[in-house]
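Much of our argument rests on the idea that a fold can be written as discrete symbols. In the encoding step, the backbone of a single protein was reduced to a row of integers, each denoting a local shape. We regard such an encoding as a compact summary of how the chain folds. The record that follows shows the chain in one-letter code together with its fold in token form:
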Amino acid sequence: MTESNEEKSKGFPAREEAEKLFEEAERLNVGAWGNHSRNVAICAEKIASACNMDGEKAYVLGLLHDIGRRFGVRHLGHVYDGWKYMLESGYPQVAKICLTHSFSEQDINVYIGKFDILEEEQKQLERELNSVEYDDYDRLIQLCDALGSAEGVVNIEERMEDVKKRYGSYPQTKWDKNIELKKYFDKLAGRDIYGIVKV
């Protein structure tokens, strides 16, 4: 089933199409990122629905935020690959999420992991990141990226500790920003989001 021009004009695919894109990507690069992405999508849909946002859109953006992983095991490369792939596929809203999900501070220099892209690609990514205006969907996927592990939904501090162990460090400013994002969505939902996602 192909999407209509009307569906494409939203800037993100319908759920069924998103799941096809995701399943294909997971076949190309099997790994823990698949279950992580599913858990991010589930969290995003639940929190969005509790905050009077579009739950379907949040699910799709959460599911595809790491779609750049289809191209192999990369660090900053997965951000670049996902952004380019979704732009070329005609899904600018997903491309934006691929770009912003790793940067709650909107600063490429605080990326945790290897800068494994070409210098010109890094400059392109940095220009794009600096020019976008974050909205609540960017913030939501950043939050859910810190809530959803491959094993399930976890306490945000547990998840950050896990990342710290794997990469050797975790910038305090990024840690603080993630806690701030949780408080922001607690307020938007009118209750603790852990109760919504059942941590």
